[in-house]
Amino acid sequence: MPESVKSDASFRPSAETYTKHYSGQCPGQQAGQCTGQCAESHTEQYAGQHAGDRPSGPYRRQLILPAQGEPAALHAALSPHALSLHNPSLHNLSPHTIWLTDELLFSFQRCHRRAYLDRYGDLEYCDAPSDYLLKLRQDSLAHRREILQDAVIHEADYPRSNWAAGAETTLTLMQQGVERISRGVLLTEYRDGVMLVSCPDLLVRHPGESVFGDWMYVPTDIRLGKRPKLDYQVMAAFHAYVLAAVQGAWCDTSWLMLRQRGPYAVDLVDLVPRMEEILYACAEMLIAQREPEVFIAHNRCDLCHWYSFCYGLATGDRHLSLLPGVTPSRYVYLKQMQITTLEALAATPVRELEMLPGFGPAVAHKLVHQAQATLNQEALLNPSLSHGALLELVTHRRLPTAEVELYFDIESAPEQNVVYLHGVLVVDRGQGHNTFYALLAETPEDERLAWNQLMELFQRYPDAPIFHFCPYEVQTVRRLGELFGPASEVVEDLLTRFVDLHDWVTQVALLPVESYALKAIARWLGFNWRDAEANGAQSIFWYAQWLQTGDRAFLESILRYNEDDCRATHCVKDWLVAFITEKVQEIQADQGH
């Protein structure tokens, strides 16, 4: 079951609204129903050509001074002193210098607290990188090597993290006018002891006027992601920003090299102002040493090396961010109303929340009752579902209980675009037993074979409902049908048998869980996975290791995890039937009186 993240940050916030609202959350999390099964892979969280508009006027060549009395970040504050070999400050940096690196700024976009802890936190509290994260790093390095392998490149040589030495080496190469520079370091003073550090993957020489002569450099960032996400583009703008201070001239654009898509030209006219606002907010936090409040958002936090540390603080305080539906933007308004505890939220009259931006009656009812369910550790009927609506839902949609039921779960590697396992648990209530079928593609080339085996298994039980958790299985079956057959009408007829239990749970019930993901719900019901730390990301790592080593122990781990997912889905379905039956009986009893 893939566990993935998707961000949606297409707006252009002010520094204040950025701090309050830029959460990058998926729509499911905004609704308090995120399952960790968004369409993009974790690769997008970690890591055709579109040129866009090229910068013109002052953004092309001219350094701009900030207006007096206004934040430098709100104007192109590109007059800070570029460090050079002749600038004594390069060799006399204060021990209190705050190094604001591109990596730190990238982290700040995704989580302000992560950037703060990376600068001021105690590294003893850091988590070791997961197997999956290590795989992503290896994939990123391999992608970078592939991009650079055929180019003639001068590599800046300097001790690791010695930014001053790296800047000297890079500046020497730029003055020499070499064609391409990798591992380059660009430094410039920003404000109040903050030094900006830009390390673009590649600096490429182009014709143009700069302090070096009739040439200038253009930055390129190599990213493992497939899409030119906003945080990637912001970093490309940051490289151009610092580079302009170093070479005394703006480049026309800044480039991203994306996996599969190739080169992407970043629109600096649009992105530099956005980047400046983010940069200013990040520098303000670091200068003031203002530690951001803990806020747990699983789609952003799960791969973070500070996750255990922050999660421990959040659970100790019973922080509201652990409550489904409490997004960063909603939390701002709850704090303004001094609603910062489960007890306070559970006791808040719904009408007091209804008029708040981003709430409304449905969200207000759900949040208050979600707090009550969590506080009392009990499942509640969804307050947005009237008794009549529940009876109609049960009557017309029905949650089938059949003699034979199928429970279906998929394992896939989105970055390879391959589905490597279809797991199906066949529950035969009439015979009183169940059987797990693992339809495995031992190599990516076997994907079609595994798909055909799945179709044969579904045809063997033509009347059996097929239960799954979240839309991913439906989306994938439809996609594979288009790729391998059968005809679309056959696939669509098959999909009428699919029952999404996540949709049913979130429509009908409020549970005392931190998220409406399968693991959270099944564990609340008492179900345990045999590999406690197994997840979709780990499954992807295991499959990569199997392909690399041929060690079948990795396949066994995948099959065990997937079977447990199918059995957990079965557990949720049985509980849901019992819960709905109980609530319907209560309603009918009340109506009888």
Task: Describe this structure as you would to a colleague.
With 593 residues, this protein is of the alpha/beta class. 46% of the residues lie in helices and 15% in strands. The protein is built from 23 helices and 16 strands. It has helices at 15-21, 27-30, 42-46, 102-110, 112-120, 131-148, 163-176, 230-247, 268-288, 298-301, 307-317, 328-336, 342-346, 351-354, 360-376, 387-396, 447-460, 472-484, 488-495, 501-508, 518-524, 536-549, 552-592, and strands at residues 98-101, 154-155, 180-182, 186-191, 194-198, 202-210, 213-223, 254-258, 262-266, 380-381, 404-413, 418-428, 433-440, 466-468, 498-500, 509-510. The strands form 4 sheets. It has a 6-stranded mixed sheet. Helix 4 packs across helix 5 (112-120) and helix 18 packs antiparallel against helix 19 (488-495). The longest helix is centred in the C-terminal third of the chain and has 41 residues, at 552-592.
